Amino acid sequence: MVVETSPTAEFFLVGRVLLGGVLAYLGISNMLDAGNKIEYARSMGVPIAGIAVPVSFVMLILGGLGILLGIYPMVASIGVIAFFVGVTPAMHAFWRIDDPDERSQEKTQFLVNLALLGSAVIVLALGTAPWPYTL
C-alpha cells in the first residue's frame, strides 16, 4: 500500500488527525467525568468498573494519540479496537432497552462505535506501511 505519494499522504494525514484527535478527545472527556462513567458502567453490569473504566480511558487516549502522531500505529489501533470491542456491546446494548427514544439513541451510539471500530481496523491494516508525516 502506498500512502507516501501526494495527495494520498496529505489525505491520510488529515484522516489520522481527525480520527486520532477525536479518539483522544473522547478519552479525555470521559476521564474528566470519571465518577459518572464508572457509576453508569456499574449500572450496566460491567465487572470491576472502578478499574475497567479508567483503563478504557487510557486505551482510548493513548490509542488516539498514537494514531494522530503515527507512533506505534499498530499498537495504538489494537488498543482502540480492544476498547470498542469491549465497550460497544456492554455500554450501548440497545436491544435490551424498551423505551423507543432511548433505544434509538443507544442504537445510534452503537453504530457510531462500530464505524470508529472499522476505522481502527483500517489503521491496523495500514500499520505496517510507512506512514508519512510521523514523529
UniProtKB/TrEMBL annotation:
Keyword Kinase set for record: no
Q: Name one GO cellular component term.
A: membrane
- A Pfam match: DoxX
Q: Where does it localize? A: Membrane
Which of UniProt's keywords are assigned here? Membrane, Transmembrane, Transmembrane helix
Which residue ranges run through the membrane? 12-32, 44-72, 78-98, 110-133
Q: Does the keyword Transmembrane apply?
A: yes
Protein name (database record): DoxX family membrane protein
